[in-house]
């Protein structure tokens, strides 16, 4: 065996084979996508964390507060769809830079809002960049990854959502501990300028996979919405969109309302809420990684089904914890974060595998962000139902999303180990 063969063999085995086999350029692409999604998460999470202070400052109802999240997610669908077309027309890396710049600029502007209506507009525009970043980064890395490792390679990128979430909680805890709440929420939004630093790294180091660039340039019909709705791809697009709707409807219900639930229903302080969220985020991080390994071992569909059932059960348990049992709230935060995050690990690989190269950006971005847009109405509905059901009772509605996800799996193929052609 030659030295080159020996090195190649060593790269193909071991716990981090998924990373080694990306190659030098693939590893830089992975780092760019990881950083982009972490900062995407950071800029999204500052809103739920600051929601109580914003509600007090602008004197808005829980329904209006929920609308801030809903408009972000609805507009993110538009941003995601546009980014999908850009991915197939101008390339993965260029689109990644544009989306990062967009969500960074408008997150900062949210901190300068002088009215609820102005904040709503800035948050909506932030959604344009927020919607396109994940799919762009996931496709970029999926095209470098080997089929047998693709699930975990993209899942580790998904885990960066928990990293960004953790950073936002740290910022929230520090800022709200030392700055008056009527100013602290503004400062928290201003820290959303951090993602701009990532643009320098991406510009200098990240390139599209050669094979993807060749196929993109060779295709005469790339980036057209009509193609993902015609023929066999039409059925795929319908059920993939339904799957994304269910999973994200359930998840964003929790992401939007758990911080408020901990403060108002459980009576926790700023520092106390941050401490409880550590368990939730730790569970999410491990869930993302574990889900990636499971999606490569069990297959995409079995993993989605497993975590849909477990997420439904944990939501019911979490919101029905008896008053005074805050220790149990702390403990159950870990499996809540684990189950509801692990289900996302297979999305990047699965959606990439469902579409051909010249339509991968359009198909993946549309289905994922369509689900985000429709699922976005879950948090708003919970906000309006909270007035009569109580916030904990209304949050149970999020479990309905996972039932929708299970139904969607009936119309989708298994794509484990599929080559990206």
Structure notes:
The chain is mostly helical. The chain has a single domain, classed as MFS general substrate transporter like domains (Growth Hormone, Chain: A, Up-down Bundle). The chain has 20 helices and no strands. Helix 4 runs antiparallel to helix 5, helix 6 packs antiparallel against helix 7 and helix 12 crosses helix 17. It is globular, with a radius of gyration of 21 Å.
Outline the fold blueprint:
Elements: H1 3-11, H2 17-20, H3 23-58, H4 62-90, H5 92-110, H6 116-142, H7 150-178, H8 181-190, H9 196-205, H10 210-218, H11 225-228, H12 232-264, H13 270-297, H14 300-319, H15 326-342, H16 347-354, H17 360-375, H18 377-389, H19 391-395, H20 399-409
Helix pairs in contact: 3-4, 3-5, 3-6, 3-7, 3-8, 3-9, 3-12, 4-5, 4-6, 4-17, 4-18, 5-6, 5-9, 6-7, 6-17, 7-8, 7-13, 7-16, 12-17, 12-18, 12-20, 13-14, 13-15, 14-15, 14-20, 16-17
Key features of this structure:
single chain, 421 residues, Growth Hormone, Chain: A, 80% helix, globular, disordered N terminus
Number of helices: 20
Residue runs with pLDDT of under 50 for 5 or more positions: 1-8
Estimated share of beta-strand residues = under 5%
CATH topology: Growth Hormone, Chain: A
Shape: globular
What is the CATH class?
A: Mainly Alpha
Tell me the major beta sheet.
none
| Category from helices, strands and their pairing | mainly alpha
CATH architecture, by name, is Up-down Bundle
Query: How many distinct beta strands?
Result: 0
Q: For this structure, what is the CATH homologous superfamily?
A: MFS general substrate transporter like domains
Order of helices and strands: HHHHHHHHHHHHHHHHHHHH
Radius of gyration: 21 Å
| Average of pLDDT | 83
**In whole angstroms, how far apart are the ends?**
30 Å
Helical fraction equals: over 70%
- Tell me the count of domains: 1
